[in-house]
Amino acid sequence: MRQIDRISLLVTSGNGPAECRLAVGHVLHRMQAEAAHLDVTLDVDAVEAKHGPKSAVVVAHGTAADAFARGWCGTIQWRARSPLRPHHKRANWFVGVFLLPVVVIGKTRIAAQDVAFESFRAGGPGGQHQNTTDSAVRATHRPSGLTVVAREMRSQHRNKALALERLQGLATARDLAVAEERKSNENRLHNALERGAPIRIFQGATFLKKGGG
Questions:
Q1: CATH for 7-209, among 3.30.70.1660, 1.10.530.10, 3.30.420.10, 3.40.30.10?
Q2: 24 contact partners, CB below 8 Å, separation of at least 6
Q3: What does the domain layout of the chain look like in residue ranges?
Q4: Counting runs of H as helices and runs of E as strands, what totals does the chain give?
């Protein structure tokens, strides 16, 4: 398997309350929208919990992946009255986005025989010929449940190869996130949220970016 360029991020609610998990969901939605605008492909593995993901691993692919990641790394602040506890006085919720180390292959190895492929008609970036055949593939690694979609290539065979690479990248990022969390009983990354210096601020129930956008 050849090495591919990718950037892996950990998005976490830290030890925050349920509202922070809601904020993680909003952040992931915003990331997907921004990535599509920049022609960056995102693979996401979220740790679901009540009211939203507690954390998620995000792997970005594309020429603008580095710029995309730099724009998100740091503390994200959400200013909103709690939709879960309307009478709660607190109205500031925080999410941390951290860059994960670069590792080619982690503990989990993706083997083609463990992957289920589903083909479908492609759409999105990649050229006008994408829509003429069922060339895109959705690949699911059965042992781990990880899923990615590959649609950039014009042939199903090449998209399957790309999907295997992306599954390996997502699995490696998940392994890294778990390893980082286990480095100490205090979960260093999750507790590293700097609540006093957010790089992005969003407001209200619709998660609007402060200053527009």
A1: 3.30.70.1660
A2: 11, 12, 13, 46, 52, 53, 54, 55, 56, 95
A3: 7-209
A4: 3, 10
- The per-residue pLDDT for range 135-189, each reduced to its tens digit, is 899 999 999 999 999 988 888 999 999 999 999 989 988 888 877 766 644 455 6
pTM for the structure as a whole = 0.77
Which residues, in sequence order, are CB contacts of 68 under 8 Å at separation 6+? 7, 34, 35, 38, 40, 60, 62
Please name the amino acid found at residue 30: R
Q: Residue 18 gets which letter from DSSP?
A: H
Task: Read off the amino acid at residue 185.
Answer: N
